[in-house]
Amino acid sequence: MAFEVTILGNSSASPTINRHPSGQYINICEHHLLVDCGEGTQMQLQRYKIKKSKISHIFISHVHGDHILGLPGLLLSMNLMKHEQAVNVYGPKELFEILAVFFKHSETDFSFPLNYHVVDPTAESVVMENLYFSVKSFPLYHRIPTIGYFFEERAMLKKLNVEACDKHKIPFTFFNNIKMGKDYNLPDGKRIRNEELTFPATRPISYAYCSDTIYDERVIKAIYEADYLYHEATFMHDKLERAIKTMHTTAKQAGMVATQAKVNELLIGHFSSRYEDLTPLLDEAKSEFKNTRLAIEGTTFILE
């Protein structure tokens, strides 16, 4: 099953010629999600040949402009295209107050169901789940209410060992139970252990998204042992005072979070426009957590 993250934007509040505000496209088992939607997001989707018509769920971390200003335009474009599939938007209540005013005064009637899901930024909760994955929200610590998201595949069913099942003449009507981990009892009472009838399921993958936040160890519990972590790294550590004042994180601190949370891999982004060369930020994060990569726009990370 696919679990892919494409970086659409990795800049902080001020975009640059080569970097755009926050936005990520996630494909989990052919479910198409968007996380944050800064200015220019739909142009980035076009640039990287991602069909916006596929997007069914949009998760917004907070209502600072570099995370939401692309959202009205994206939704309006989908409406102009006579989009029909329901679109679900998740975020703090302030987001929907902003959208309501915008669509009221633009007299917009949508051609598709647009469903709003208010997320509490002060508590952990499961905000979406289906047969393939779940999405949990958790608090981040920024100047305004801000939400992190934890995307996790559901445990897959075991793969059937057809040859072993045929050997024991097991009826196909029992196959689903076997794939769910149950043993099988033969007519003579002999038990065939599940391990003999199946191959191990693929281990579920998890991805934590931490947008704007000050370094705060309360985040560690929510993202603990995530396979992949995206964490903002707005400043170098020599700008720590500035990071604290604006409630952002340094690259060094992002590496510290990854180490304490025992994640497998760290992606850093949300870079200040003051940095043309991102290599020093990468090096600084790596000084705390070696397995770190830059969230470069246009890069698709295959999570496995």
Taken in chain order, the helices and strands follow as EEEHEHHEHEEEEEHHEEHEEHEHHEHEE
Q: Got a strand count? A: 18
- From the alpha carbons, calculate the radius of gyration and give it in angstroms: 22 Å
Distance between the termini: 10 Å
What does the main sheet amount to? 7 strands, mixed
Largest sheet, spatial ordering of strands: 6-5-4-3-2-1-18
Q: Pick out the low-confidence regions.
A: none
Percentage of residues assigned to helices:
25-40%
Number of helices: 11
The CATH superfamily of the largest domain turns out to be Ribonuclease Z/Hydroxyacylglutathione hydrolase-like
Class by SSE composition? alpha/beta
Return the average pLDDT rounded to an integer.
Answer: 95
In the CATH classification, which architecture of the largest domain applies?
A: 4-Layer Sandwich
The total tally of domains equals 2
The CATH C-level class name of the largest domain: Alpha Beta
Describe it:
The structure is a single chain. By secondary structure, the protein is of the alpha/beta class. The chain has 2 domains: 3-156 and 202-302, 4-Layer Sandwich (Metallo-beta-lactamase, Chain A); 159-199, no CATH class. It is built from 11 helices and 18 strands. It has helices spanning 41-47, 65-68, 71-80, 93-105, 162-167, 175-179, 194-197, 218-223, 240-246, 251-261, 279-286; strands at 3-9, 23-28, 31-37, 57-59, 87-91, 114-118, 125-129, 133-141, 145-153, 159-160, 184-185, 191-192, 198-199, 206-210, 228-232, 265-269, 292-294, 300-302. The longest helix is centred in the first third of the chain and has 13 residues, at 93-105. The model has no long low-confidence stretch (mean pLDDT 95).
